[in-house]
Amino acid sequence: MPEATRKIQVQCQINGQAVTLDAYPMARLLDVLREQAGLTGTKEGCGEGECGACAVELDGALVNSCLVPFAQANGTTIRTIEGVADHGRLAAVQQAFLTYGGAQCGICTPGMILAAVNLLARNAQPTETEIREGLAGNLCRCTGYTKIFESVLEACRATRTLA
Amino acid sequence: MRSYVPGYEMQAPRSLAETLERMAREPGLWKPFAGGTDLMVLLEAGKLAHKNFLSVWKLRELRGIETTPEYVTLGAVTSYSEIRRHELLACEFPLLCRAAAETGSIATQNRGTIGGNIANASPAADSPPALLVYDAELELVSASGTRWLPYQSFWKGYKQIELRNDELIRAIRLPRGKNGWVHFYRKVGTRRAQAISKVCFAGAARMEARRIADVRIALGSVAPTVLRAVETEKMLRGEQLTPTIAQAAQESLAREITPIDDMRSTARYRLRVSQNLLAEFCERIAA
Q1: pLDDT digits (tens, 9 = 90+) for B150-163
Q2: Considering only the top CATH level, what class is B60-175?
């Protein structure tokens, strides 16, 4: 057995709640979220930062959690797919994915929705080109993307109508 | 096969001084770790040979973009997203912003850093050609002092760089004054977004009365290191762009680069595309 380092304790805020987690310093944030925090909405796809299935928000920035070592999560604020709906009320992007068929098998959906929500927070009325760029790091093998881009556009429209 | 995660250590010193002191006290034991977009991929693939890391992600001494009349200086832990959003960089160093926008996805750009990209020393990286064109200089720091090095002399060979094991890159400095230049950048990959380059070309030229008064050309993915095409630049400098000169420059470029066949492309394709991109650059500066 190779020599092992010691587990460390990390304090962070996940979906609005302060939590303390124990894991090895170079454990992937993805694994800690799923296995220690029990938040299995975050998916593993490629495990090398190409597919975006494990995307979460870290201090407001979209990141691939498979590429974030646990030690760097100390003192951060994290939002996963479980923190996107507001007390059971779906976000506009989530509702649009349901209504317009933006999800099929569902593996890419949490990352796709976080990428979309993050994009809309930076740019409330993106063009289709901007949506394509914002979601370029999220791969989907079912939908062919058209339904996903439509869902995000519809979510913008719904938000605009409400406002 | 995945790595044995308990075998890896990461600590987060609170200051640059503490980081450098640790690196000096235990030479070779610790390596700096920024956004992890390269190192974590190696970890997952079971190929991360080094075991002990010091996180520099939060170090304020390595962050921020500063401007003086002579230079724009980027802290090594400046992310691609920060580079993309910076107005002065977009205006004076557009190739660097283009490279940042074309590297990986938004999630990668939020974590990938300019210093990390330089230290990772991949010949296929997208920002180094832009840095070479802009005559970038690196600030290397250790517990025993600071030295500045032209980025061009930082490369020693394939994945080999001029960095001692007690040193890290603190900043990257770009001399200003290329405002009036024509800037040109093209990355050719399998897909428009999130693809590693088959060829990456960056060029800039200053024209005076239809002559090329000065020129810089740099390419990625066509040699063991990112390469400045010095001989081709020499051939173009002072010349008026004629089809003969453009043709001669393409032949010179073919002698300077040494592309190979690999998983992403072939030597033949890379040579042809490099020459075509040079032709496009020549057309652009002649226009």
Answers
A1: 999 998 888 888 99
A2: alpha beta
